# Entry
Amino acid sequence: MKLSYLIKACTPLWQRMIDPESSPHSDPVITSIHSSAQDVKPGGLFIAIKGFRSDGHDYIDQAVANGAVAVITEKRMERLIPHAVMVEVKDTRKAMSSIAHNFYGRPSSKMVVAGITGTNGKTTTTWILESILRTAGHTVGVIGTINYRYQDQSFENPVTTPESIDLHRILAQMSDAGVTHVIMEVSSHAIDLHRVRDCDFNIAVFTNLTRDHLDHHKNMGAYFACKKRLFTRLLNGRHSSSNGYYSNFNEPDTKFNESNNQFRNRFLITCPFTSPSSPLSMAGEGENGKVISDSFLNQSGTKFNKRDTKFSVINVDDPHGKKLAQALPPETVMETTKNSHTNGNENHVLGNGTDIHISGNGTTDHAPGNVTGSHNPCPAGRISASHIEDTITGICGMLHINNNTLPLKSRLTGGFNLENILSAAGAGHGLGIQPQAIVDGIEACREVPGRLERVENRGGRHIFVDYAHTPDALESILKTLSMRAPARLITIFGCGGDRDITKRAPMGEIASKYSNILIVTSDNPRSEDPHKIIEDIMVGLKTGSSPEIHSDAEGSVEKNQGETNRKKAGEQIIDDDHKRNSLELSILEGDKRNSLELSILEGDKRNFLERNICEGNRKNPLERIIVEADRRKALEMAVEISQIGDIVVAAGKGHETYQVIKTGKIDFDDRLILANAAKKIYALTDHV
# Structure
């Protein structure tokens, strides 16, 4: 494929560039594209990216030595590189996106593409929507945090949204395999780093926005602005070279404007074989110049027009979602809300004590009103639910899709999962899926790996793993589980290293608020000392009790700091101004049950029971805090001290089958460790 074709989408046609007729060497055939110099193959194009840890411009010589015939750079080269065409652009990340889009045949333009973004819920929404589309008979491909998959094949995905070269390669593979619909998790990093700049999205879904990634975005305003770009710019093709937004380069009156985003990828091309003053000459459509059909057949057999289908699905129960919906043309927005509206009146409002019923044993109170055969139309462009019964075994109720009301049933649990279900239903409806197929698809999605995923056991415990690694996500799952706990809630969690440290103390506060037994441990410490991460977490714990400090065993995670750090991690700061309750724990000899002795500090006027109710609605107060930096030991300990009916939840790692420590990745799966620990408990107990 000619270099001139690859770069034409982001090059103003009036700019000087390649002259293949007078100098064939100035327009080489490109056989591969790379952003890593060590991966370059003969005939390849190397794109120099300035990364966070290294700069690709420092490896241009290595790339050419490995066979690169052309190099894309955003730095002015002081010298010509022999045997390679040098192309200077303003932003190599933007150029890389459009080049990859062209090199792989503009694959996103050949399929229906849904992009799902938000802090939490992206993966679960993706799995539910995949189930809906499959139920409707479509061939689906998914690119997300857990993996990328299509046609019964799955592949490891190191990041939520791949770099643009990898992304368009994957999309091309899916298209070649007959995939008609692609669902993609779109991270804020992917938007900010232009990985999805040239994806031809048909639908964008917003789940929520809570505190996360502030190490990258610096503040919540910048974080929200980044997410918003998916809906205001990328969905509408204002960056994409696939939707004709570069056609104005052909208009004679077009002037170059430095502030205009459409013109930012300017090119200066130098070549050892020709003069930069050669006249402009552009290649034709070349290998990728095929006419792409815009029409697909939807479930009913009618045509679905890809080009004309551009809409958003937004969770307006989230404050940022409501703000986003108000900023978009209303005719392009499908709103989702847990609040049901009947004939314009808010008769069924989720969470007001009338319409939602929560139970720990699977039973629910009677919901008012006759829902059998009911017809409660939602306003146009709105997906909602009513008469919801939410138990530890799942959700059931009524789903309202505009003028259709259908029974809803799902094995997923919790209000946050209801939001994910509604988001997926809205996307399915907008893509022409029939209402019955939507509810069937929701019911068919029985579990999402690592998202409140149940670890089956024969010991009478309710054991879960969850990927929650933000304050909001952790609070959502712990609040959900604490309100359903037949007995106690035992939580194991930590925070990742080399990530936003400001969320550690809030997560410690949340974990102590809802848990009966809390075990603070490691997550993926990466290059950080796990004990220092634990110290940061412990600052947020809202209790005066001193935690049990467990020494790290031989071979435990990053054992370096010794007893000094462990003692520091155990120090608790009591808020003297509020005179909080001090909980002193004594362990009964020969009995694994904790005996809680309550000591009311002088000046504390609050009733203990009132404190217990306001902090999480749990049946029992926080009994015990344990610090165990070795995550394996922490998981095993949680199962060992659990009793029949207890809920044990390991938060933070979810589906991951590895742990990242200072020396690299090691095999580690919370689910396997918890399952094996449960087997040991079952074998030791009298279960006959």
